Amino acid sequence: MEFVSIGYLCFLAATVICFRISPLHWRVPLLLVSSYAFYFTWNVRMTAALLLVTIVCYFTALQLEAVRGRKTASTLTFLVVSALIAFLAFFKVRPLLCKSCNPLIPLGVSYYTFRLISYLVDVYWGKQRAVREFIPFATYVAFFPQLIAGPIQRESSFLPQLENNGNAKAKILEGSLRMAIGFAKKCIVADNLGLFVGWAYGHLHSGSSLPGLVALYLYPLQLYADFSGLVDIAIGSGQLFGIAAPENFDAPFSAKNITEFWRRWHMTLTSWLRDYVFMPVRMLTRDWGEWGLCLSLSINMLLIALWHGLTLGFVVYGIFHSVFLIVEVLTATRRKKFYSANPASEKTANILGPLYVYHVVAIGSVFFRAPSLGIVTQVFSGLASRFRHVGADLSALVAPPNHHAWIAFPAYILITVVDRYRRRYGFQLPALTPRYLRWSIYGSVTAVWILIGLVLLGSEKGSDPFVYALF
Amino acid sequence: MDGVIGERLTNTFRSLFGREDIQLSRTTTANDIKEWDSLMHINLIVAVEKEFRVRFTALEVMSLNNVGDLVDTIGRKVGALKN
Amino acid sequence: MRFSRDIAVALGAVLLTIALFETGLRATGAKYESSLYESDPVLYMALRPGAQGWQAKEGENYVTINSWGMRDGEHSLAPAPGTLRIALLGDSMVAAEQVPLEQTMAKVLQAKLQSQSGAGTRSVEVLNFGVGGYTLAQELLLLRTRVWNFHPDAVILFLSPSSVPSCDRRLYPANIPFFLVRDGQTIPDPANRAPVASSPGGRRWHNLFGDLMNHIRVFQLVRKATQDGIPREIAKFKGSKRARNNNIMEMWLQPPSSPAQENAWRVAKGIIGLMAQDSRNHSAQFWMSAIGPEIEENPDPSARAQFLRTHGITDFDYAEDRLRAIAAADGIKFISMESQLTEYAERNHVSLRGFFNTRPNYGHWNENGNAAAAAIVAGDLLQRGSLFDAPIQSTQSKVGQNRGGS
Lengths: 471, 83, 406
Description:
By secondary structure, chain A is mostly helical. Chain A contains 19 helices and no strands. In chain A, helix 9 crosses helix 15. Chain B is globular and about 35 Å long. Chain B is an all-alpha fold. Chain B contains four helices and no strands. By secondary structure, chain C is of the alpha/beta class. A five-stranded parallel sheet of chain C has the order 6-5-7-10-11, with helices on both faces. The chains are: A mainly alpha, B mainly alpha, C alpha/beta.
């Protein structure tokens, strides 16, 4: 089921209620059962596949621990991890080869495969003890809030939270507010921006530069609102069970260079690839000096891009970002020397940095969004055309059905403010909050959720499919 | 940090990170030094390999949890070289 | 004491939240169905005078109901001297809530006739008595109880695909009035249940609530969610599909295939006959037209052909032809709407139905459809109507006739 649906809300509410009223030793099994039930409503066969893969990895890890130090350990790890990669690759490649097959990738495959691979490799490297109890392990693999779009949590941060049988204080207020922000990001910001961007991509031939501008500058915002909204819902859902998840975004558009951007965008994916791809590859190439570094960075970035899809557009996207990463890394020491000599220029760089980052990201995102390279050229050539017909295009842009989409902008500003507050202070109520304030907040939040439920019930089509749920 | 290996290691750190104030202990990890990120980590390994004339395997590097582990691993390898 | 204060503050916060949400709903342009109807002892259901609200299912339009319960501008009961009045009867196609009033077929027709009135001094008024959801029976009752008060010179009845099926209770289960044909007479069905009308006091509360709801989005949202959303989700959960009334399309395209369908045709003919007779009694011309389903007006000939092939028929004309025959037998002038509309759409490559928030060629007439229909009706009226040749009757004599007649 989609995150933004009345079905998910009812499912989540029911699960949370059962969770809170069950005795402690039932809680983790309940999480497992509900995760599988969630998956089951989507696809029965893939549920069986998930279980199978989980069982295989469970026993593999135990075996790895038994044969630690011997050659069989590396062979076994290599075999199972390769099988997992092949399993994932199969689903990514299938839409390309078989046009008549289902083009969608099964729900969560990218995410749980990554969770399993990181677990096995950590056990192999001795960083993690093989888990003896199957139920917590299977819950780690299949935890439903993180199946739709991550975040990709490591077992070392997830499993300990299950240890007191889910007796961690459930953060109902925080979780529900986090989820509400996610819903708002998705429905008010992302969907409306999507209307503008959709219009732009449908009107690339209009002769003015407006569609190109809209497509270029608004899509990164849409993508961020869509994806971070998704993640907010995922993290918020987990908090309802008292489970904390790692953040996936940290004000990415405030980054001053591309290197920093990738430390603030889709953080769990980049850190995963850093630990399991970049580091090993860099180790292998460490004697090649700067060439080795460039190669490692490129492979890493390319994999980030290809994780999204196996098309030429994504390859170009990966190469595009790699170029900037490499240039930045190679000039890092020189830049540092320059800034310490000229502090004023550092201040300027700090102001211009986010502009530079936004433009690079925006240009790269065209490759991400455009369905083909031909469309990419149309977008950019459209930009080059002069500002003729902008007026006519502007009226077309805001005509029905887009006539209310402008609300995305004030909503985005409001949400950014709320997000910044959350990052700084969190949503916990201080212990000494007076009762009337506490009750007001609880009452308001409950009212908001009832209203959200009504809106979901009252809308015919629900929300647009998440961009990132397709990966 | 004391011991021959410990002293040479501290110097390696100091010249690599460009900071004279770095102090190491057995429990020091990457979290304790600001510039020590994944990129620097590999540079560190390369520098250590050059300094002590040893070679690490990928597995050995990934299994390191703190400076103490690093010192022990260096010690093992140097000892093996001597014998 | 503290307890009640805390509760009061909390409630205040909740109300504030709801108010903010209401602002948010308005800002994001969310619009839900308005309450425009009221219950009526004779008609069972009628447009509520003075009601106004948004229609946002097909296009977006703010609808106002006048003080007489018509989807029209205000009209005086008595026409100004020398005015030619034409009353339009029909369902949602005539009410045309999807387009602004000036773009409805009624008003466009009025403008066209006015500009062509030849004699120059006669002014033309077209009165829109169309009500969404009305059946032939309700249109007959409306004619009898309200339309003649306005002294029209002509009445045009627009049938649509649901008009005939809604004449038989078995094909159209709803609490509305039905008629029967017994011994050659068309009479109200004795089995008609009383309408859900409550006491006048209850009606007042209901109407007040309806008006309140039209101004508060949150209330509309609650109604939409509970009336539409919950059954839809339950049906989805059960996996069942909402049953669609297939009789409507079937009866438009094919001869009756069951006793219920045959009865529906009989009753329809009877009701039309009653309307024609009523018009003769009031010295008014009576015209008829038939509006078909969306597919008939699809500008793409291959789409129409595909539909005909899938349903194993050669044309869309069964019902229209039969209605034309009924008209001819009773001396009623028939306006052949559909063939002209289809040809207009195809020739000009324009969609007569569909809005920015619907599929193309779906639902009710948009601005183009209303205009095209008005042009066709105007053309027929001017050509065959001799409306402007009729002697200008003074209102007094007409009123005298009404009193003396039925």
